[in-house]
From TrEMBL:
The keyword Metal-binding applies. Keywords: Hydrolase, Metal-binding, Zinc. It holds the Pfam family Creatininase. Belongs to the creatininase superfamily. It comes from Paludibacter jiangxiensis. The lineage of its organism: Bacteria, Pseudomonadati, Bacteroidota, Bacteroidia, Bacteroidales. Transmembrane segments: none annotated. This is Creatinine amidohydrolase.
Amino acid sequence: MVHHELAATSLTEIKASVIDLAILPWGATEPHNLHLPYGTDCLASTSISIDAAKKAALQGVRCMVLPAIPLGSQNPGQTDMPLCIHARYETQKAILTDIVASLQRQGFRKLVIVNGHGGNSFKNMIRDLAVDYPDFTVVIANWYDIIPQEGYFENRDDHAGEMETSVIMHYFPELVLPLSEAGEGTETRFSIDSLNDKTAWTPRHWTKATNDTGVGNPKLATAEKGKRYADVVSDRLCKLFIELTTKELY
């Protein structure tokens, strides 16, 4: 059996394989409205990465999906929620640096981060690593930004809404509580127009911005919508994986 997930793969299988590309799902540990599991971001980014790796394998490119990192950057207020874990920029950078150093020592030269948490920001870390490891390329893909939601979902999803709920219903239906248990994901926006229209930015205070930790109504979510959306996202990621393996950057 060919595995695409490192957690399910033995050293014997690794030694018998040629791994073309390492994939790192990155999520968070936080509540997602009232009906989704705390591991939603890790579960979604890992599952979509595995689907993309399977598709790439059919075209001769072998990708290995590393264990997801469950440490996300949280807004103020989120850390007041029970068992929500906030990881500082310095913590995330140290973890990513150790992963890059390990892979580089083993002969790998490329890593794709498939991010599932909107609060994470990797660009400055990746720039620093490009200076420190000039022969190593780190690429970041936010899976939820690859394909527009329009045409797939009725309600726009910001956090734990229709899109995320549908995707988790597709991959892990047993982990989703009945949608009758879910909050409506109503957002209380800033009173300052310039923050709402993106003239400027500051993090939302989560306990003031939302009543149920969700932003976006999940009530119309279905597993079928999640499968349709995840399929096109994993198609795009598959294309990325193949291009990174078969082409130079310039």
